[in-house]
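Field reference: sequence -> structure
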Amino acid sequence: MEYKILNETETTKEMEISVPRAELERLIIEETETVRKDLTLDGFRKGRVPRTLIRNRYAESLKAQAMDKLVRQTYLAVLREKKWQIAGQAEIKNIEDTDPIRIRLFVEVIPEFNVENYLNIEVFKEPPAPDDFLLQQGMNALQEQHATIREVNRPAVVDDLITMDVEVREKGASRNESDQKVRIGDRSLPDQLNRALVGMKVSDKKEVKVDEKHYLLSVKKIEEKNLPQIDDNFAKIMKLTNLEELKTKVLESVKKQEEKRIEDDLKESISEVLLERIKFQVPDTLIQKEYEKILKDYGMPDSDSNKERFWSVAEKRIRFNLILNKITAKEDLQVGEAEIMDLVTRMGIKLTDQNRNDVIDYLGGILNREKTLDFLFKNAKISEKSRILSPKEAANDTHTVRH
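Structure field:
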């Protein structure tokens, strides 16, 4: 076997592999023997059909199977020699059925890059929010969790839940969305829609213009949310002695959440530093897969605007995962199968012969990334930073994250 690289970039390789035709003939003989073992034809016992008869009757399929094996074997041999890590399936550009047989392939690969300076990354830690603020947030969340919803027959007000049919017209086209449920005052809604919904009643219809879009609203139901009174009685419903004990429990919980939020923010800062320090080209195949996953997670269609919005996000995610994989290998942080199986058990996943390898690889990847990110966090240089700086302090504050 001989090969030559026709064109290449950091992430793409186009090659031509030359293989003596005798190698294809050898593989055809192998395929013939494989078929012969289990083949039964009239007049011949199983495994006793003449090879020449098999070659004549199944010539095309035998050659196709042998050629497929030839391409796969020679391609994998090149990958091993070049030590390329592929990013997707190879694309066969052309096969010349000559002697030697010439196979032209295109493949995307993960580029070689080094990971350095990933220890002692300096990041700044925001102090936690004050206890009274956290407690209030926790009590508000508790009220929301135990709120009751009831239908009302009155004009809608802010915070009401509205169920409506919506027709959206734009540039001569229209689409209908039935039984859409929104909360008046939700900041994800355009201001014009929030304002228009206030005062509407069941069966009311209204047209609202937002930029180039026209919304035809038809209210079907109005509901109000009733928040419970948080007092001693509520505490007893929660199987606690009184309000003070409830507040203590809530504060403990929200403080843990705040600690987790701060830690997640620090890990995000570490990831941004690594992305800034370690630059390399990411194969388009991997970015495309991650981009499609983002669209699926958000329930969005592929479009020019979404590609402009999410393509760079997908690129960063893939690049960061590749960086973490390198650090995982360099620091020998790979999780063992026992840890993976423990997670499988806790998640209640049932493994089968069909899904076992995929599940273990997927969960192993997640655990490896978490373990490596924890390692980077523990080895980071974390500096305290005031939540609010005075103008004088701000003027003298020269700290920056060092990239």
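Note: The chain has three domains: 2-110, 148-226, 235-279+331-396.
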